[in-house]
TrEMBL record:
Residues 80-269 form the ABC transmembrane type-1 domain. This is ABC transporter permease. It comes from Rahnella contaminans. It comes from the Bacteria. The keyword Disulfide bond does not apply. Its main location: membrane. SUPFAM superfamilies: MetI-like. The chain crosses the membrane at residues 21-40, 82-107, 119-139, 201-226, 246-269.
Length: 281
């Protein structure tokens, strides 16, 4: 028979975070070679060699070559590096804009809150991909435009989380204390509200990056992103789809890299989310 003492003294069961480790390993497996690619003994990703066009994966070219004889491994690593830069900068822009607007909406309230919430509803109502393609068609597909557009069109989810958390924080006693001390609203938001928002926002950032990776790849696949010969994961698949019956590796390997990045970020984000909930409990 189990006694009450044995139940109370029983150690809590350890949670399994192996998926977070697996996610981190997947990301490292992709990101580290991409970062080290400029110093690795690899062919120039932009150099044509028509004599080696459509070479199958082998000792000469580990992942084969494309229709112009360019080394696919070099192009995938270069494309991964560029795609990750675009995604990370866009995610930071979205997180900054959304966090600031969410904190202001939750702390100030009133008509300011109502206005920001309506802007959020409008932004969420418009499909991301259609809005981005429209702006690309109007202003061109430069690297700066892609980063800014992806960042500006992704702030709403960060604002929603920041607003909800700020509504809780502003009712705490220490906020009332700093108000009584005469601290200004910007100082209260930056020094006393923002630090308490960092954990949920970082978790949200980790979970949102896979969406941005797929979005950036979709833009490149449709030919509205960074234009060839500069490689990105999306335009590599877009270029290779015309030769799928002849050289399947042109689509397979960039697709596997995108899958590894998305799955790795999702596993890592889920693990961070569970750890956050455990700490709060």
């Amino acid at each position: 028979m189990i006694s009450l003492r044995s139940v109370l003294q029983r150690k809590p069961r350890r949670r399994f975070y192996g998926d977070g480790i697996l996610g981190g390993l997947l990301l490292l497996l992709v990101i580290i070679p991409a970062l080290l690619a400029p110093w690795l003994p690899l062919p120039d990703p932009l150099k044509n060699d028509l004599a080696a066009a459509f070479s199958a994966p082998g000792s000469q070219h580990l992942l084969g070559t494309d229709q112009l004889g360019r080394d696919l491994l070099s192009r995938i690593l270069a494309g991964t590096r560029l795609s990750l830069m675009v995604v990370l900068l866009a995610a930071v822009i979205a997180a900054v804009i959304g966090s600031v607007l969410g904190m202001i909406a939750g702390y100030v309230g009133g008509w300011v809150d109502a206005l920001i919430m309506r802007l959020m509803d409008i932004q969420l109502a418009v499909p991301f991909i259609l809005l981005i393609l429209l702006v690309m068609a109007l202003f061109g597909a430069s690297l700066t435009n892609i980063i800014l557009i992806m960042g500006v069109t992704s702030w709403a989810i960060y604002a929603r989380v920041a607003r909800a958390k700020t509504l809780e924080i502003r009712e705490l006693e220490y906020i009332e204390s700093v108000k009584a001390m005469g601290f200004s609203t910007p100082r209260i938001l930056l020094r006393h509200v923002l630090p308490n928002l960092m954990t949920p926002l970082i978790v949200l950032l980790t979970l949102d990056i896979p969406r941005l990776i797929v979005l950036e790849a979709s833009i490149g696949f449709l030919g509205m992103g960074i234009q060839p010969p500069t490689p990105t994961l999306g335009n590599l698949i877009g270029e290779g789809r015309s030769y799928m019956l002849l050289a399947q590796w042109l689509v397979l390997y960039p697709g596997l890299v995108i899958a590894a990045l998305v799955i790795g970020c999702n596993l890592l984000g889920d693990s961070l989310l569970r750890k956050t909930h455990t700490r709060l409990d």
